[in-house]
Design brief:
Rossmann fold; about 25% strand; binds adenosine-5'-triphosphate; nucleotide-binding; 9 strands
């Protein structure tokens, strides 16, 4: 298999505070890696580091298998300000093509087609003219997923994409992400708080906390980490 990301002995943190130390794992093309763990364990910090928005304090990240760091689509955790964004759904999705424009100040027909395809995949074509801030939380997340899909057809990185959604909308989101992974062959890295809901879709699990676990979903189920965290309450 083609290895797209190799993390070698990563140390992450802010100033003198170290959040993550000696973390190593790999991501192969087509994987669905679910990152789980305690609050404040550094999961979002790890994603930002993978995207190059932050530098590791030590260790190395290597990209391969035809993937470059600037070819990763990102769905960040939503803030309240973003929820109020006064643009149409079409404009928000198309803005995912910004990285493809270079210095060109407009979107060309190829980029518009990419945005249209992404909206078809996410079943949001009827919402194209609707104002983003008038959508439900679940619809907004679909729009942001389509936007991330415009940025990359190789890898998507999703920071808690179902947080704040009701169980039905969360299920729809998981189903759409699964389709993107299985049918389109796009590698997925997703942070999830809801480990029981997320694990059926994952091929691999990275558990972050005082100790780390990295392995296949099956290995995780059989591990002491899985035993402790997969028990229904
Ligand atoms: N820019 C920053 N400067 C300083 N500290 C930060 C910064 N961003 C995050 N932190 C701190 O780093 C710690 C880990 O944050 P991070 O968001 O990576 O954890 P997380 O595992 O994603 O947590 P959660 O599950 O709560 O989202 C937190 O204590 C947070 O306050």
């Amino acid at each position: 298999m083609e290895v797209q990301i190799t993390c070698d002995n990563l140390k992450l943190g802010y100033g003198a505070g170290v959040l993550v130390d000696e973390l190593s794992f790999t991501v192969e093309k087509g994987d669905y890696l679910c990152i789980v763990g305690e609050n404040g364990a550094g999961k979002s910090t790890l994603l930002r580091t993978l995207l190059g928005l932050q530098k590791p304090l030590a260790g190395k990240i290597t990209f391969g298998g035809g993937l470059q760091q600037n070819e990763i689509g990102y769905l960040p955790q939503q803030t309240f300000v973003q929820r109020d964004f006064p643009a149409s759904v079409w404009e928000v999705v198309l803005s995912g093509c910004q990285g493809r424009c270079g210095l060109r100040p407009f979107y060309n027909s190829k980029e518009k087609q990419i945005a249209k395809n992404a909206m078809e995949q996410l079943e949001i074509i009827p919402l194209a003219r609707t104002c983003y801030r008038d959508l439900s939380g679940g619809q907004q997340q679909r729009v942001l997923l389509a936007r991330a899909l415009c940025a990359s057809d190789k890898m998507l990185v999703l920071d808690e994409p179902v947080s704040g959604l009701d169980p039905k909308m969360a299920e729809t989101m998981y189903r759409l992400v699964e389709r993107i992974n299985r049918e389109m062959g796009i590698t997925v890295i997703m942070i999830s708080h809801d480990i029981l809901e997320a694990i059926p879709y994952a091929t691999h699990i990275l558990h972050m906390g005082r100790e780390y676990f990295f392995g296949t979903a099956e290995e995780y189920r059989r591990s002491r980490f899985g035993n402790a965290f997969l028990q229904p309450e």
